[in-house]
Amino acid sequence: MAHAPRPFRLAVNARWLLADSLEGTGWYSHRLLERLCATPGWEVHLFFDRYVEGFDYPGAVKHVVGLPARHPWLWKLWNERSVPWLLCRIKADAYWSPDGLLPSRRALKRVGLGGLPLAVTVHDLNFVHQPEGIPPRVGQYYQSVVSRGVAEANLLFTVSQTSKNDLAATYGADLERIVVTPNAPQQDFKPLANVDEARRRWAGGHPYFVFVGAFTPRKNVATLIRAFQTFKTRHPERPEQLVLVGNPLHRDAELEQLSRTAGPAVHWVGRAEGSDLNALYSGAVAFCFPSKFEGFGIPLIEAMASGCPVLSSTASCMPEIAGDAARYAAPDDADAWAELLYRAATEDPHEWVQRGLAQAARYDWDRSAAAARSALETLRPAP
User: How far is residue 349's CA from residue 117's CA, in Å, rounded to a whole number?
Assistant: First the structure.
């Protein structure tokens, strides 16, 4: 009697799946795993570094292994000791890390898995190009481990063509080994008709510009605040306010100083998700994204999908992702940003809203998951 074929046992680093605290890597992991775990003939094992509520995808097996790994020396312990041990115990066929960090071949060899197929997602190389905005120990760890992982992995994922080209140029990775699996909006964002409620809640009833993202030096929020102050000085009659959505990730001394002098027209509203985030985008005069470096820039397409005109930096992947649906300025040109703010406040937004809706529709988690599934299938052992 013929036996059913053994399922493809894929182990996945699920360390960034944190309930109510998903950031870019976490959303990418979550939305792809929702789809990949349902693949017939697959058995997906999720490796967490702590007990986490939720993320109970049909057919997936959750494991908690090692200590919570939130600092570089604990990352090393988790990747080099805890992960190889569990890969051996579950008899994994392949391992995929969506956060850019893989165990070394040396560590895998110690448990008899030196030839295990490996896949890794490297979202961007900000730690190479913008190291001054990252704590030194974190940056050093990423530079060491990601470069090694790119060399040792069988398969590389990234989230934009710009990042794919950067991986090839920086590390000499073969383009044929790199598969682009773009991000998409966290949820089903859409234009909302009632903007008055958003204005009352977040800007004292005034029209507002909005920024969404972690407060790190590379996000360049300081330039946006200076541009907004210039805009208000030049046009004191204008009622627009500035709403900043997010929390600090790494220390930014310049932004801390500006926060003390920004004035009452700048509103720091903390983190927002779900319907609140949709309303923040949809109620805004424009979404402002002056970032110096991104692998993708998810807020760009979330804002577009919400019917919000976009003002974007010209840096890295932003023109690729936003296309002709955004108005652009160089990231450090505060005068140019002040002019963009004025144009957004005074020009008819209809054309930019329509362009944005069309551009956002190009990005879809189903398509990205299909590309990831097809690539990961190549790691399945031969029968």
Answer: 49
